[in-house]
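User: Design a sequence. Structure:
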């Protein structure tokens, strides 16, 4: 094989690898978008308008806590532990309970 043919073969192989990687990234992004849309649809059914607004505000201030709260709300609803729809007052009570649970952590510092 000449060096030009080898170079073309390597270019074609590299291009195929890049296209496969790009397809994989696109598939992952599509799956994430679909999962987020499904989660938002479930939350629309679970929460009243005021509660959704409060959750949106929480996500703006503390995004990771907002994501965690969304998952907990969905799990509570699926387990039947909360009444649906969740009102703003109920969401406030849940937030207070979560905050109390987080405050209960004890931190002990040992010095050696």
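Assistant: Done.
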């Amino acid at each position: 094989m000449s060096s030009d043919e080898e170079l073309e073969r390597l270019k074609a192989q590299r291009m195929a690898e890049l296209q496969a990687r790009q397809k994989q990234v696109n598939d992952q992004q599509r799956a994430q978008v679909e999962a987020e849309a499904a989660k938002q649809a479930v939350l629309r059914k679970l929460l009243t308008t005021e509660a959704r607004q409060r959750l949106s505000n929480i996500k703006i201030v503390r995004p990771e806590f907002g994501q965690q709260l969304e998952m907990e709300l969905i799990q509570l609803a699926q387990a039947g532990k909360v009444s649906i729809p969740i009102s703003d007052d109920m969401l406030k009570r849940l937030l207070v309970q979560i905050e109390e649970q987080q405050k209960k952590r004890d931190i002990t510092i040992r010095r050696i």
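Residues 66 and 72 are 10 Å apart (CA to CA). Residues 1-46 form one domain.
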